[in-house]
Design goal:
Elements: H1 10-16, H2 18-26, E1 51-55, H3 57-72, E2 77-81, E3 97-101, H4 108-119, E4 123-128, H5 134-138, E5 141-144, H6 157-174, H7 179-198, H8 201-208, E6 213-218, H9 221-237, E7 240-245, E8 263-267, H10 272-283, E9 289-293, H11 296-299, E10 305-308, H12 313-336
Parallel strand pairs: 1-2, 1-3, 3-4, 4-5, 6-7, 6-8, 8-9, 9-10
Helix pairs in contact: 2-6, 2-7, 3-6, 3-9, 6-12, 7-12, 8-12, 9-12
The protein binds 6-O-phosphono-alpha-D-glucopyranose (G6P).
6-O-phosphono-alpha-D-glucopyranose binds next to helix 3.
Length: 353
């Protein structure tokens, strides 16, 4: 218990460590005064072709976010579940850069995909938290996310650090050092602290702890956050939870929406207007809507509850939105008395494929 620093669970401690984890990830990589991003580990990395991300679980959701960021910067990037990489017959050439995202650096499915890429002559890079891990040893390049040790099985601070590291990677690969992104990266740890200090997620969790199921919707970057929000809810509460790209609601999942199914809607960035349209669809079916947004005045009128996040620009605000969802899941699980740090049937690192 000494390691929990007074928190009831490692997971809550690690959620609260996120501002520090972010500062460590960004230190000496984002310059304090100038508009510069320098990741020393990537100095010799070259990328002339397309980028393929491979990952599992929460790391896969970070990789989806990363692929979207690279495309934003004009780089052709796709994201694959590591367990499907071989099964889907993904073409790999010696011009492909294959990026593994794995906090442990030991996940068997991710290692399998990276080894396949190595054998096919691709350049491999891993983003990992663990120095000397199998992935760090076997890939051509390694970038550390510097989150510090994570004990809770459900990944929290490593996810945030992966996202920040991916923002740095996208800037390095594209050679674009957008002043706005750099400004927002510098401000991100303080904004995350603000979310932790002001969050009303516990009250939302208390109100909806008895729900039949939880849905999470978002578009673009927020589609990956919706998937992660649902995964976290499943992992630690054992309740039915699903995340969707908001546009897919009407193609099936809407049939599940009732007044007993809270819908968490991620409403930030340039996809906000369309997601508000999706909120109206679920509201019309009586579902309570919890909007996670940086624009409460505009969105509040369509939602029964608002979990507010500061504006950190179009690329980084979704990182803050995810923190609100981590807290909701945590507090639902705490009320249900679940084994939060070691959920049933799950392991921190899955070393069998
Ligand atoms: C396990 C953990 C997940 C994690 C996944 C990938 O399933 O329970 O929390 O996201 O492995 O782990 P990695 O170490 O590759 O990021």
């Amino acid at each position: 218990d000494a390691g929990k620093s007074g928190y009831d669970h490692y997971m809550l401690k690690e959620i609260h460590e996120q501002p520090t984890a972010l500062r460590k990830c960004l230190r000496e990589r984002v310059s304090e005064l100038e508009h510069e991003i320098t990741v020393e580990e990537l100095a010799t990395l070259e990328c002339s072709g397309s980028v393929q991300f491979v990952a599992c679980g929460t790391s896969y959701h970070a990789a989806l976010y990363g692929a979207r960021l690279l495309r934003e910067n004009g780089i052709s990037a796709q994201c694959f579940l590591a367990s499907e990489y071989d099964a889907q017959r993904i073409p790999i050439t010696d011009e492909t850069l294959v990026v593994g995202v794995t906090q442990s650096g030991e996940t068997a499915d991710t290692m399998g995909a990276l080894r396949m890429a190595n054998q096919a002559g691709a350049t491999t890079l891993v983003l990992t938290n663990v120095v000397g891990s199998s992935a760090a040893r076997e890939c051509d390049h390694v970038m550390y996310i510097r989150a510090g040790p994570e004990i809770g099985v459900a990944a929290t601070k490593t996810f945030v650090s992966q996202q920040a590291a991916l923002a740095l990677l996208s800037s390095e690969l594209s050679g674009s050092e957008a002043p706005a992104l750099i400004k927002h990266l510098r401000g991100l740890p303080d904004k995350l602290q603000h979310v932790l200090d002001e969050s009303t997620a516990q009250a939302v969790a208390e109100e909806f702890v008895d729900a039949d199921a939880y849905f999470f919707i978002g578009r673009g970057y927020n589609a990956s956050v919706a998937l992660e929000g649902a995964l976290k809810m499943k992992e630690i509460t054992y309740k039915h939870a699903e995340g969707f790209a908001a546009g897919e609601l009407k193609h099936g999942p809407l049939a599940l929406v009732t007044d007993q199914t809270p819908v968490f809607a991620l409403v930030t960035g340039d996809t906000a207007a369309k997601t508000i349209g999706s909120i109206k669809e679920v509201e019309a079916r009586g579902a309570p809507v919890i909007a996670v947004t940086d624009r409460p005045a505009e969105v509040g009128q369509y939602a029964s509850h608002v979990l507010e996040v500061p504006d950190a620009g179009p690329y980084l605000t979704p990182i803050l939105a995810n923190v609100q969802l981590q807290l909701v899941s945590y507090w639902v699980a705490a009320q249900l008395g679940r084994s939060i740090d070691k959920p049933r049937n799950l392991a921190k690192s899955v070393t069998v494929d």
